[in-house]
């Protein structure tokens, strides 16, 4: 066996393979710190719980991109730029309209982002200024794409944006044609803040790999969307709701789980590559879910949530991740289950773009090695 480059492996020992890069530190980042020992998550040094309690999503986006929270003037400038770019681009709408309503919404978002990139004359400009401008544009455009796609599936017309609303209220307005109760808007804002950034997760790493070849920001984001779609990553928030639908009633949670575990199924919304004693974001999102349960009078959903979590702790001692409370929260807000992972995209675009810019500041082509275990050299 040999590694697949011209540099020979040390002859005495086979190189260690870390499947899934588990435990491998591949670079530095100043954007966020995930600490499984203290069960904490910091964005640029600030605990995510404090940001979720006190900041708008726009402020958090600014923090991730610039490293500091905005002054009132800087925030006003970001809000002006974001609000002025909220309307769905007609070119993008035309492409969405050409796609079947059976397409998965993540495929629609991925396609829409490709179209936005192909139409942008500055795509090849990878300067920080240009990439920041693109990041703000994507922050503003993704809600239009996600909201319109859900509406067209329901046979509803596009709702134009309102520039008198903040990001979260406008997103809900464009999706549902009205602004829901303040507790609902707030729960949505909290979810956006919590989903925004999580160090070298699979989709962010994908974006950094693509960026490391000196490809453009849109290409990196499109690749990241593809990585996020999978149910082992962002697709889990959608999958959690399918599990809830499958179980149906809290009284069946334990028997459903036993059967699923006997079939060696992975239980969606549980477990994490980094956190092994619970996800730092879950208590905050669970509190937001609780406000929605109270608002909509859905104790049945809360009961199912609690019983499945308790059974999973009892059977496997595996804790929920952020997708577990987010799935039912988005359901209560009125989103279609298929729209849940695109909501994750809408938030994570901030973290992805921050990482793309950080990667470019200190770039090295990302290209690991592999251990060849195919046939020995042979000849025709
Ligand atoms: C926002 C996010 O992206 S968070 C992640 C969202 N993804 C999910 O919720 C999907 C369900 N969870 C999983 O599949 C996993 O926990 C992952 C992929 C998130 C993390 O996986 P890894 O770090 O690779 O852990 P791994 O899969 O090796 O699990 C370790 C053990 O716990 C078990 N395990 C971990 N998660 C689960 C789960 N959700 N259901 C059942 N068993 C699980 C594994 O079967 C394995 O058991 P074994 O040692 O007996 O084989
Ligand atoms: O960090 C991870 O592997 C997955 C995750 O929780 C995230 O991306 O938010």
TrEMBL record:
Pathway: Carbohydrate metabolism; tricarboxylic acid cycle; isocitrate from oxaloacetate: step 1/2
Positions of the catalytic residues: 272, 323
Top-rank lineage group of the source organism: Bacteria
UniProt GO BP: carbohydrate metabolic process; tricarboxylic acid cycle
Keyword field: Acyltransferase, Transferase, Tricarboxylic acid cycle
Family: Belongs to the citrate synthase family.
This protein's name: Citrate synthase
């Amino acid at each position: 066996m040999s590694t697949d480059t011209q540099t020979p492996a040390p002859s005495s020992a086979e190189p260690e393979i870390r499947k899934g890069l588990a435990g491998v530190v591949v670079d530095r980042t100043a954007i966020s710190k995930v600490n499984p020992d203290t069960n904490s998550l910091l964005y640029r040094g600030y605990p995510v719980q404090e940001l979720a309690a006190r900041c708008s999503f726009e402020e958090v986006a600014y923090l991730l991109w610039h490293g500091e929270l905005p002054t009132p003037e800087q925030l006003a400038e970001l809000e002006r730029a974001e609000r002025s770019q909220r309307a769905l681009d007609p070119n993008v709408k035309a492409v969405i309209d050409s796609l079947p309503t059976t397409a998965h919404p993540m495929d629609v978002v991925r396609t829409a982002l490709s179209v936005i990139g192909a139409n942008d004359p500055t795509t090849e400009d990878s300067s920080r200024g240009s990439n920041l401008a693109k990041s703000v544009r994507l922050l503003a455009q993704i809600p239009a794409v996600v909201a319109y796609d859900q509406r067209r599936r329901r046979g509803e017309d596009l709702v134009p944006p309102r520039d008198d609303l903040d990001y979260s209220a406008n997103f809900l307005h464009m999706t549902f044609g009205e602004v829901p109760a303040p507790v609902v808007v707030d729960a949505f804002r909290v979810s956006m803040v919590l989903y925004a950034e999580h160090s070298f997760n699979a989709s962010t790493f994908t974006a950094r790999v693509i960026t490391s070849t000196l490809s453009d920001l849109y290409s990196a984001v499109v690749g990241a969307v593809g990585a996020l779609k999978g149910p082992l990553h962002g697709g889990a928030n959608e999958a959690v709701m399918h599990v809830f639908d499958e179980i149906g009633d809290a009284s069946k949670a334990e028997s459903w789980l036993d059967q699923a575990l006997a079939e060696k199924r992975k239980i969606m919304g549980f477990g994490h590559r980094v956190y092994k004693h619970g996800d730092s974001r879950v208590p905050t999102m669970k509190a937001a879910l609780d406000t929605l349960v109270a608002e909509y009078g859905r104790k049945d959903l809360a009961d199912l949530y609690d019983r499945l979590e308790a059974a999973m702790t009892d059977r496997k001692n595996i804790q929920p991740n952020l997708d577990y409370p987010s799935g039912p929260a988005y359901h209560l807000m009125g989103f279609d289950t298929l729209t849940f992972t695109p909501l994750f995209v809408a938030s994570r675009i901030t973290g992805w773009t921050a990482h793309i810019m950080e990667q470019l500041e200190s770039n090295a082509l990302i290209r690991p090695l592999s251990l060849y275990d195919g046939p020995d050299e042979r000849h025709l």
